[in-house]
């Protein structure tokens, strides 16, 4: 009998901050370390998973480690609710219940903890989803950065919807529900004192109402993805990879607010790589594009919805995302490598 030996790691190899940034390093960590421990990847890596044997129940888990805890437009408490609800929504599900676990560093001001939890509770009530269970742990000074929040969400998929990162088809229209780059630049500016705080606020908000508005499209709604870590570039690359297609994006159609563009120019960042917390990319059948845009624009959180591109056949290059620039050239949008922004979700 042949016994397989475990693959050894090079001596001194360590986890890097970039392994948690949502780009190529994250994919390498998942594929090489995390997923093999649980039997490997069985399909596309979705924002949430169907509970086995449940029919239409969906579950997601997320961790929130944003620094600073409060930033223009939001805080770690409301962000935890919105991020979890949005992961459920990206699978076409309405939220039913939340679990919240806290890891609190010794020495955190109780007033600050109360403010975070008050914001979290208000966000949950605003969505209409109860926090039904949780856990609280306190660790020694230096063992955490003030406060970490882990959430689990349970939702029920809306009838007729089954969006998936593997669902894009040639000819589909690619839509965005709103402008990009606001969350990442707001957090970075506040943390580093860059002076953009007066002009940029995070876009953190729940997206489940937008998804409910798209529900009448049924199976013509192919893919939903919120471009959080790694930004729009990472989200589009994941869809192109899992669907085996090419995604063609028009740079002139991508809505980048002027303050975000200015901040990115100053910092040498690509707005396509900057995290978002209140917009989503939507792939729909070509005959449903106008109806989808009308549905998105019918709600306040979708008034800035636009069509930004199309899905093309692979033609020997599956998994590629191509940007048509303002000067008529074309360039490949790569998956971000690692960490651009410190602790943005």
Automatic annotation (TrEMBL):
This is Hydrogenase expression/formation protein HypE. Belongs to the HypE family. Residues 46-156 form the PurM-like N-terminal domain. One of its GO terms (biological process) is protein maturation. InterPro entries: HypE, PurM-like_C_dom, PurM-like_C_sf, PurM-like_N, PurM-like_N_sf. Residues 169-315 form the PurM-like C-terminal domain. Pfam families: AIRS, AIRS_C.
